[in-house]
Design a protein that fits this description.
The complex is a heterodimer. By secondary structure, chain A is α+β, with helices and mostly antiparallel strands. Chain A has 20 helices and 16 strands. Chain B has helices spanning 2-58, 61-71, 117-120. Classes of the chains: A alpha+beta, B mainly alpha. The A-B interface holds A 60, 64-69, 71, 82-84, 86, 88-89, 164, 166-168, 170, 212-213, 215-217, 220-221, 224, 460-463, 527, 530-531, 534-535, 538, 543-545 and B 34, 37-39, 41-42, 45-46, 49-50, 52-54, 56-57, 60-62, 65, 76-80, 82, 84, 125-126, 128.
Chain lengths: 563, 129
């Protein structure tokens, strides 16, 4: 081949000795050409890439690492995401006493900046031989700035986390509090301590069923009533009757979980869950439901309430005596102890006990708190116990148990477990304790107890409130103190489609001029429930509307009102 | 011709080298910016937590109520002021135009006139806020 080409060059008159050089150049040119083609392709591709708009934009976001904000304890929020408890960075002040030249002078300066400290104690700390002493834990940013302004090299800061409760006293009993090292000591902080301090779930807030707006309305009204009636304590509860969620829970006196130093046991005591009270006539609701559901009595029946009942050494009286034969709706509306006690005898002690047991009234409430009180009732259920328990004496339960029980009376007969956590599912299938028909009858009775009976002061216009008053004398040293009352009201609204139960209790209220000296549940607690309903019904999505009188007409006719 | 070509190629190589260096520096700069932004986001998230806590503290219902009483003359709505659908509002009859008196929104220093509410509510129960 090459020989032939060489011959052809020769033919054209090219010097024969140049042919190897020409061959080399030719080969080189081929190489150059190949490179040029390659570079050409690359530049064409480059231009194409430069001109074309990229179809798939590969984001570099996954390479960007934003260091997450870490904190040792998960937040607690209310049902609408409002912050209830949060961990924030705080600085704690320490000193190295070996570097302190003038302990007395520095102690004085520090006390000026941090007023809570004791001068003598501080001086002693600063003149010790140790290399590390805490001066004060968890300073506010302002205090930190002022300590820095002192410019003393012996002082230093350590970063720590501080648990803050932005709403202060609000919902203090539900939330509880933590110790200086961030361990939950009371409330949900204690009950859910493990869940809250779990490192993997710290970014995931714990959502409670509490609604701060409702919580405040209840706290505000209870506080006002407590002040007006000089009560020593108060308790209140708002519960969703269909899910058992506790929307608000107030116990007075309360405390500020941000600063639990010097808070006494009385303030820490949760009256809603730990306190057990003889709640009086509200219990008649259970006796009536029991009798109606078992068929022991019907609306058409009645009992003789002409004179007090005598049983062994007890006498059962009526607080609002009518001294006549009363129909069942009348016994409920006028809150007749005599009639209810007789009905309880017809039910029988064993069945009564069984019924109250099925409502969870004889065992501690199953709530997400460790501060849960055990109910008190007689060990041996005698005849007289059956009679007094039928109207709420001789048995003491906590308000949260009562609210759970009442909810099941009105919601169609399903007993829900009370909960402080926001419920995730919409449907709640509690176990059935009474039939829907009995529940409907109980709604009528409760509504009529408000429109015609003792609970009239709870009737928030438009919201179809039903409820039952409760007034009990406090047990003091084996007997009852006629002056010291536990006055309560258990309200549910709207009665044609029950949504929320509102409970208010005042401990030892005094009558005022406005209540004509009365301090019973109908006078002092019912108005609280009314005001709470007026303030919160709209927040909870219940609209006021005109009442369907037909729902109650038939039963209402059975109640003969005295002039 | 060949020299020109070599020269152009050399210039191209130099230029592209310089451009590549430039690009590398730019990428480094951008990477630094990204890191700075990530840091910024981190510290913003931190202060966001503090601000959220502060917001919750400042908007706690009690202080809102105190502010409201101090600055506005707003009362809780009465049940009869609430309607379920907008169709229930009747059309205004002709020639009954009212002047837009906004004084109802001002603090209750002077007695707010034109409020028919107080007469029919029972003994001021509804007024307790």
């Amino acid at each position: 081949m090459s020989l032939a080409r060489a011959q052809s060059f020769e033919f054209h008159g090219v010097a024969e000795d140049q042919s190897p050089l020409a061959t080399a150049r030719l080969r080189l040119m081929i190489g150059v050409l190949m490179f040029m083609v390659a570079f050409g392709l690359m530049s064409v591709r480059t231009i194409e890439l430069g001109l074309s708009s990229p179809s798939v934009q590969r984001s570099a976001a996954r390479d960007i690492v934003v260091p997450p904000v870490t904190f040792a304890r998960a937040d607690i929020v209310d049902r609408n995401g409002e912050l209830l408890a949060v961990n924030l960075q705080a600085s704690s002040l320490y000193a190295n006493p070996r570097e302190v030249s003038d302990p007395a002078g520095l102690a004085q300066k520090l006390v000026d900046v941090l007023p809570g400290l004791s001068l003598a104690e501080l001086e002693q700390k600063l003149s010790s031989k140790r290399a590390f002493v805490w001066i004060k834990r968890k300073l506010t940013p302002r205090q930190k700035w002022r300590v820095n302004a002192l410019g003393d090299p012996a002082l230093g800061f350590r970063n720590e986390e501080d648990r803050l409760y932005p709403h202060g006293r609000l919902a203090a009993h539900a939330l509880g509090y933590v110790d200086v090292d961030g361990n939950g000591i009371a409330g949900v902080e204690h009950y859910f301590n493990d869940r809250l301090s779990e490192a993997e779930r710290a970014g995931e807030p714990l959502a409670l069923s509490i609604d701060v707006r409702v919580q405040y309305a209840l706290a505000d009204e209870l506080e006002a009533a407590m002040r007006a009636h000089q009560a020593i304590g108060a308790a209140g509860l708002v519960m969703d009757v269909n899910s058992g969620e506790v929307v608000a829970m107030v116990s007075m006196p309360d405390f500020d979980p941000n600063n639990i130093r010097g808070v006494g046991d009385a303030e820490r005591f949760n009256r809603v869950t730990k306190g057990v009270y003889e709640l009086g006539s509200t219990f008649k609701t259970f006796t009536f439901a029991n009798a109606l559901d078992d068929g022991v009595a019907t609306f058409e029946d009645g009992y003789d309430a002409t004179k007090p009942l005598r049983i062994s050494r007890f006498t059962i009286n009526d607080d609002h005596p009518k001294n006549r034969y009363l129909t069942l709706p009348e016994i409920f509306a006028f809150s007749s102890n005599i009639g209810t006690a007789q009905m309880a005898l017809d039910i029988g002690g064993d069945r009564q006990q069984e019924f109250l047991q099925s409502l969870g009234l004889l065992s501690p409430a199953d709530l997400e708190l460790t501060e849960v009180g055990a109910p008190m009732y007689p060990n041996t259920w005698r005849k007289v116990s059956t009679m007094t328990i039928s109207y709420g004496h001789g048995i003491a339960v906590s308000p949260v148990q009562l609210a759970t029980g009442i909810s099941s009376m009105v919601n169609g007969g399903r007993l829900n477990t009370p909960t402080l956590l926001k419920s995730q599912s919409a449907s709640h299938k509690g176990k059935s304790v009474i039939s829907p028909a009995t529940s409907r009858k109980m709604r009528q009775l409760l509504r009529l107890a408000v429109t015609k009976g003792t609970g009239g002061r709870s009737d928030a216009r438009g919201y179809r409130v039903g409820g039952k008053t409760g007034t009990a004398e406090k047990a003091v040293g084996g007997g009852y103190d006629r002056k010291a009352l536990i006055s309560s009201f258990m309200g549910v609204y709207p009665m044609d489609d029950p949504q929320y139960a509102v409970f208010a209790l005042l401990d030892e209220p005094k009558g005022t001029k406005e209540t004509f000296g009365f301090a019973s549940g109908g006078w002092v607690a019912a108005p609280v429930v009314k005001n709470v309903i007026l303030r919160t019904a709209l927040l909870l999505g219940v609209l006021p509307k005109a009442e369907d009188e037909n729902l109650y007409q038939r039963v209402a006719l059975m109640i003969e009102e005295d002039e | 011709m060949r020299r020109t070509f070599t020269f152009i190629a050399a210039v191209c190589a130099l230029l592209s080298g310089a451009a590549l260096l430039q690009l590398k520096l730019a990428v480094q700069e951008q990477a630094e910016r990204v890191a700075a932004l990530a840091d910024q986001i981190h510290s913003d998230e931190k202060s966001l937590r503090i601000l959220r806590a502060e917001f919750a503290h400042l908007t706690t219902p009690r202080s809102l109520q105190e502010q409201l009483i101090e600055n506005l003359a707003i009362m809780p709505p009465r049940p009869d002021q609430i309607i379920e659908n907008i169709g229930e509002i009747p059309f205004r009859r002709e020639n009954t135009a009212v002047s837009g008196d906004l004084s109802v929104l001002l603090p209750a220093t002077e007695s707010p006139e034109g409020e028919p509410a107080s007469s029919e509510t029972k003994s001021g129960e509804d007024q307790t806020l």
